[in-house]
Amino acid sequence: MSKPTSLTFTLLPESIRQCSAIGAEVHLPPGMSLLDLDQLNEEDKGIFRRALFENQVVIIRKQKGIDPTVLPRLAKLFDESASDIHSAGDKAVSDPRNILSAYKAGRIPRAPQVGIIGSGKFHDYEGLKELEVVHLVEFAGQNLDHTLFHEKPLEQTEIAEGFTRPYRWHMDTPFYERLPGEVTILHSIRIPNLPDQKIKFPDGSTKAIGAGATAFFSGARAFTLLTPEEQEFALNTTVTYAPQAYEYIRKCKSSEDGLTIPTLGREVHIDKLSEWSWDKVAEHPMAWRSPLNPDRPFFQVHGCCVYKLTTHNPVTGEVTIIDDVEEVRRVVYGMQSKIYAAKNIYAHRWEEGDLVIFHNRGVMHSITGQIAAHKQDEDKKRMLWQCTMTSQNPPKSFRTYEGVNETGYARV
Ligand SMILES: [Fe+2]
Prior knowledge:
Elements: E1 8-11, H1 14-17, E2 24-27, H2 42-55, E3 57-60, H3 70-78, E4 106-108, E5 111-125, E6 128-133, H4 156-160, E7 183-190, E8 197-200, E9 206-209, E10 214-218, H5 219-224, H6 228-235, E11 237-241, H7 245-248, E12 283-285, E13 287-290, E14 293-299, E15 306-312, E16 319-322, H8 325-336, E17 346-348, E18 355-359, E19 363-367, E20 382-388, E21 396-397
Parallel strand pairs: 2-3
Antiparallel strand pairs: 1-2, 3-18, 4-5, 5-6, 5-20, 7-18, 7-20, 8-9, 10-17, 10-19, 11-12, 11-15, 13-14, 13-21, 15-16
Residues 170, 172, 365 line the site of fe (ii) ion.
Pfam family, one: TauD
InterPro entries: TauD-like_sf, TauD/TfdA-like, TfdA_dioxygenase
Protein name: Taurine catabolism dioxygenase TauD/TfdA
C-alpha cells in the first residue's frame, strides 16, 4: 500500500481568480520545506498534475534555496518528453537579429536549462562573474529606446501615475525548430521593492498589480468567449507561424494591449531572414487539446507571430487559406482580444522565493511593470530563474480530422 497522500492544493481566492479560471497554491507535504521530488509518491504527483492542468498556474511559496537542478526535473513531471534543451536553444539568445536577444538572459552553469531573467546587474552569481539582465517594458525618455515594443508607448505622465502594460502576450517557444514546452517554471530570487502599478483596459477599468507582475490569461477561457461560429472556425484551423518568427517581427511593434502587431510593412522580408526552411517553421492547431482536460479546447495562438491560417471544412473537406499577414492578424486579434479585460487576467504578484509553474500550452503570458528605470537601485533589482524546455511532442489539435498536420511543423 502506498503512503497516504500528503501534497494538497487550494484555489487562489475568488477575489484574485475572478473570471480568469487561473491560479492555485500547492502545499508541500508536512515536514517538506523545499520541494523534494524524490519524496513525492505517485498520488502526490497526480495531485500536482491535476492542480496545474486544471488551474494553469500553480504557486509554491517560500522555495528560497531550492537547487536549480530541481526545476528541469519538475518540468518532466508534467511532460515526460521534455528534452533537456531550453526552448530558446542550448545557449542564451545572443544573435542581435533575434528580438529575444534584447533580454540579455543568462544561464545557470550547473543547470543550463535554467535561464536568469530580470532587471539589473549582478556580480559573482552562480559562477557568473558579471550578469546584466534587462526588463523590457516602457522606457520612455530613457536611453533604452530599442527595448520599446509598443507602437504607441505610455506617456511619461502615465508612467508617473503608475501605469504599465502587458509587454507581449506569448507562449514560451521560438516557433522555429523547437516545440513549445508543456510548462514553464519561474522562481523569484529578487523582487523589486516598488509600489503597485496598474493596467488600464479598453472598457475603462483599471487593475492594480504588483510591480513586475507576470500576467496570464487562459486559452480555455479565451475559447469560451468566442461566438459559436468562431469556435467552429478555431476548431478547424491550423496556424502557420512566420519563418524565424521573432526575426521576422524584429522591427515591428505591438498594439497597446500587447496582443497583436499593427501591420505597417516593417516585417523583415522572408528572403532576408537568417537561413530557414519550411520544415522547421512551427505550425500548430488554433484550438489545443490539453492533458487532463478532455472537454475544454484551449485557444492558443501567438497573435504577434502568426503568418497563415488554413481552415478545413470537416463536412465538405474544403480548404480555405488566409495568407495575407495583415488579415491573419486581424482575424486572430478579433477572436483573442475578447479576453482582454481585468477580470480575465491573473497577474502574479511576486513574493521572494515563489516557485511558479505555468501551463505554457494552456495560457498566454506577458511581462508587465515599469521597473527598468530603477535597475541601479539595489533594492529595486529583479531576478527570476526561468526553466522552459522544448517538448518532443507537438501540441495536439482539439479536433482531429483529415488534413490536420500533427508534426508541429509546416508541411513541405
Ligand atoms: Fe515568457
